[in-house]
Structures are given as C-alpha cells and as structure tokens.
Amino acid sequence: MAGSFTLGMRRETSIIANMRDKAQAIAIAQAGITFAQLNLLKIDKGQRWQANGNIYPIRFNNADIRIKIQSESGKIDINKANEKLLTGMMAQTDVDPIEQQSIVNAILDWRDKDDLIRIDGAEKSTYEAADLSYHPRNKPFQTTEELRLVFGITAEIFEQLKTMITVYSKQTNVDLKTAEKKVLLAVSNLDTETIDSYIAERVNSEKNQLPTPAFPQASGKKSNTSVKKIYTVIAETQLHSGAKARIQVIMQKSSTNKSQPFIILDWKPYAALKNALFSKDSESLLITQNAELNP
Q1: I need a surface site. Which of 81, 96, 122, 176 has the fewest CB within 10 A?
Q2: Residue limits of CATH 1.10.40.60 in the chain
Q3: Beta carbons of 266 and 166 less than 8 angstroms apart
Q4: Considering only the top CATH level, what class is 76-168?
Q5: Residue 65: which region, alpha, beta or left (left: phi > 0; alpha: psi -120 to 50)?
Q6: Could you please report the per-residue DSSP string of the chain?
Q7: 5-48, pLDDT tens digit by residue?
Q8: Is the pLDDT assigned to residue 69 strictly greater than 60?
Q9: Residue pLDDT, tens place only, 229-242
Q10: 275 contacts: CB under 8 Å, gap ≥ 6
Q11: What value does the mean pLDDT take over residues 71-95?
Q12: Partners of 234 in the beta sheet?
C-alpha cells in the first residue's frame, strides 16, 4: 500500500509539474509577442525588426524564445491573385499538375460572382454531386481557412499552402522583399539556388543593419506602399525542462491609436509544433542579436 501510494504521488507530482511548465511556456510565448511589437515600433530602421520571415532568438531565464515576423503583403492574396499567380502557388505543392489546374479553377469559381463553371472548375452543382453540404460563396474569401472548403483541397494540400496565403494584403502583386521562399518561387521563374542566395543576402543585410536588397528579378509592378501594415508573428518557446509552446498572431499596426499601437486580428495557440522555429531548417534565418527579456 505504501509503495502504491508513493508511486501515485510521484505521478501526480509529475503531471502537476508538466502543467506548470506548459503554462509557463505559454506565458513566455505571449511575452515574446509583446517583445516583437516593441521591436517593430523602433524609430531607428537599423534596429527595427524586419517582417520578412527572419527569426529572432531571445533568452529568458530558463527558456529560449524564437520569434518570426512575416508581412501579409509578402503573401499571395487569394482574393486578388490572378490565374497565373494561383498556378504558380499550386506549383509549390506536391499535387499532380493536372489536379493543380483544377484546384486553381475551383478557387476562381469559389470567389467569382456567378455559377458558371470554369473548365475543370467547381460550382454549386459540383459540390451537390459530391454530396457536400455547402457550395461556393461566390464572394471573396473571409479567412484563409475558408480555402480548405474549396473542392479538391484536402487538409494535406492546405497545410502546404497556408503559410503562403493571406486575405489581408488586398493586392494583386506580392512584396518580394518580405516574401518567404515558396512565395518567391511561385511569383518568379528563378531557380531554387538563386532564391536561396537572395534570402541569405537578405539575412546578412539585416545582421549588418543594411537596407533590404532588391529582388534579382523585377515583378513588373511595385508594391503599394500605402497598404495597411499587417503582420503574422509567431513566438515559440522552449523551456530547459523540455516544455514547448507556440503562439501565432495576426496583427495590424495602428496609425492613429498611440495607446494601442497594434490591433489583434487573429490569435492561435498551437499544441503541435510543425515547421518549428527551433528546427535545423530555420537556422539559416536566425538574426543573432544577443537579445534577452528581463523578468
């Protein structure tokens, strides 16, 4: 009985410790979001954090934090992108090329105002034939998650697309200086090696507090500088005990409210860590500044 009681107490203590560490990790990740906001507001452009997907490592007592900021203008707006851009986007997935074109047409059918079916597209009759309980809104997408409802897009396909897309930029073109690798490949005809070289140059420029270099291939259109500044910020925490937490926030910079410089548009905590900021693939994007949060 004594042994059984001791074992039960040890298990209970371990569960409580894990819950405590998880709560601490989440709280530190939240602090990381606030720290990112402060660094986006810095007057000195050389010190201000960039919204181009670079990763900022921070130390905090018994935890390490990594923060990634991505401008929504550096993503593909699924409400504004034309067929060519959507085709380039789908080419970055592992979907069969023929199926890629069908999905592109289904996206266009979802957001257009009519019920006319494009070649290999999908309108109301297609969804009814598949016994789906919904059909295209024939209006712009309200969220990126709505893309998951488009005929032909599975959870696996959406997982490959979700970091590339937005509904916030309101632009037909993409800001190439802030775009991630998959988006740059989607909008240009450059090879992977050239894109990797440009991203490395972009990282080194920020490390040396130099202006962001121009993309090696002109996009044909300049980015609209008057667009609202909206960012996706990911803060990921890893405690020395092994506990982890990740928070993703979409926020808009306010131009009028000084007491509330950022408006939160979306907030998501993640239990599972996919494409973790602590992975080896992320090492090349680190901007080492020896930053540390003071408790």
Answers
A1: 96
A2: 76-168
A3: no
A4: mainly alpha
A5: beta
A6: -HHHHHHHHHHHHHHHHHHHHHHHHHHHHHHHHHHHHHHHS-S-TTTSPPSEEEEEEEEETTEEEEEEEEEGGGSEETTT--HHHHHHHHTTSSS-HHHHHHHHHHHHHHHSSS-PPPTT---HHHHHHTT-S----SS--SSGGGGGGSTT--HHHHHHHTTTEESSS--SS--TTT--HHHHHHH----HHHHHHHHHHHHHHHHTT-PPPPPSS--SS---TTS--EEEEEEEEEETTS-EEEEEEEEEE-SS-SSS-EEEEEEEEESS-SS-TTSGGGGGGB----EE---
A7: 565 556 555 565 578 888 999 999 999 999 999 999 998 888 89
A8: yes
A9: 999 999 999 998 88
A10: 163, 281
A11: 96
A12: 68, 248
Q: Any idea how long the chain is? A: 295
Residue for token pair 């970055």 = 92
Averaged pLDDT score across all residues of the chain:
88
